[in-house]
Fold this protein.
Amino acid sequence: MVQVSTNPNIQLLTYSEVEEVSGFVGNFQVKVRKKQAWVDWEKCTGCGECTEKCPVKVPNEFNAGLDHRGAVYIQFPQAVPKKAVIDINNCINCAGRKFGTEPRISKRTGKPILAPCERACPAGAINRSLPLSPEGEVLELKVGTIIVATGFKVMEKDWFKEYAPQHPDVITALQLERLMSATGPTGGKILRPSNQKKPKVISFISCVGSRDAKYHTYCSRVCCMYMIKQARIIKEKYPDIEIYMHFMDVRTPGKDYDEYYTAAIEKGITFLRGKPGGIEVLPDGRLRVMGYDANLDKDIEVDADLVVLATAMEVPEDIKQLAQKLSLSLDASGFFKELHPKLKPVETAVEGVFLAGCCQGPKDIPDTVSQAKGAAAAAAVPLAQGKVTIEPTISEVDPQRCSGCGLCVPLCPYHAISLREYQGKLRAKIEFTQCKGCGVCAAACPSKAIILHGFTDEQIEAQVEALTSCW
Amino acid sequence: MAKVGVYVCHCGENIAGVVDCEAVRSFAERLPGVTVARSYLFMCSDPGQEIIKKDIKEGLVDRVVVAACTPRTHEPIFRKALEAAGLNKYLLEMANIRDQDSWVHPHDKEGATEKAKQLVASAVAKARLLEPLEELEVGVERSAMVVGGGVAGMFASLELANMGYKVYLVEKQPSIGGVMAQLDKTFPTNDCSA
């Protein structure tokens, strides 16, 4: 992360979203909206004083909802850049300090009454008197190629009513990750969220939402390995904790992965093949996992203090909007579709736009790094060549035949056609860099003035005639 | 008059296992405008391409129909062959008798062979009317945008930046790092993720 922020060739645009993309390979114009942080990032030093004074408590996304953050917050301790933002939807505007209003003056001291966050900031980065725009600002970029690497989200546990998702000791694997982390809510101690006591028995359940016709038919590919990793680390730190792992199958097909799994068995972790049917909450608050051992063909019940659900990787909701902005297509599972599953795994149907990481399909970190480096190499090709060739199978207007009716202009899905003056009259003109050769204009032109090179009327009619003849 | 060469590919068993390629070849030979019709085990292989190049160089053929697989993967290969033999590469037409024929009708050999003939006849009809086309070139903005600042976005950005290109890394959260930043240690090396 630090390498990225210190590289002189990389300009970080965080808290920003792609708004609009136009143009074509080699010459994309992009509008990026820099969202309103409500904190002056030029001045903010990331000290965190403001975050401690904010009285608001909202679930902390970074700790997967296991603790709270303020309305003004720094995403996480090692954030890059380390800057505070105000989550304006949850801000309660203490002391009536809505942005863009002057502070009230204290009758007692004669000084302005400020909100706690702005009072706390030693750098003067929060000034609620400023009429900041909630829209932020729009930056315009010109780029040759684009790599989409928008990642995934972890499926919520609430979908799985059979596993008592409302119980605080039923957690997702991402929540366990935060419990294990030194920067997490427990400082790295494994404690049951319900009573902050160390669990004696932990059960893991795999394929929660993956390989399940009700949710996602695909395998999320990382769960087996991260569950084994979590179990191993816990077992190494706390050998007395009993660990039961319920798998549909253990899938460890990566370099050194199966050895990693075998070592987990040797550490005394119990692996059971069979997906549990449900979880029963016992009167003492413990959790009875109603499992099945396929090897013994026997039902098995495990009374656990903590249950970890390996919920599926899935696409974030906003993937569709981005797909629309970039004219990309999605596959049946909702991930971005690559041009060819084997031969063009980082390319897309839009020339100059490439894919990397889990937005293209679930994968682990080694595969993600490989794909990202592959996408970077592919995206560098047009940049290195310094020029792009445009296929000549595109449309062209014969200005002599064109009547200037303008029918084609709104029909073009790529906004490639405009009416321009030609010999004193308005005639349609197709910008060749924008045209994708779809042929909509050529089919619609009442004067037959538009020719789609490589697919002329005569050529297509000859084809149709041949197809409909009896040979 | 255009001189059309038709090249029927067996694609190993992919096409020839269903379609009677010899019947298609001899059918093509009799089509108007066709001067040469040949078939081969793998048209896309070097010796396969050589057959096409030789016919072009000897002046037997000035329009090419390849009855084989999908143009999505193979059109560039055959276009290069045309170019190498001195013919404009847009004087090529492909008839997809694999994806659109042998793969979809594996249990109807006779019907598939008839369909292959129709597809070839159609491609020949178009090929006779093909005209040479020239590619256009435009300059390139030597910079890139990476959308998303997780593992994939960060590595892609670093690679491009290290190659010397300007990179705009767009991330919707206040910090880069993505889901990776939330992870404690990562398999198989158990080292920290950040």
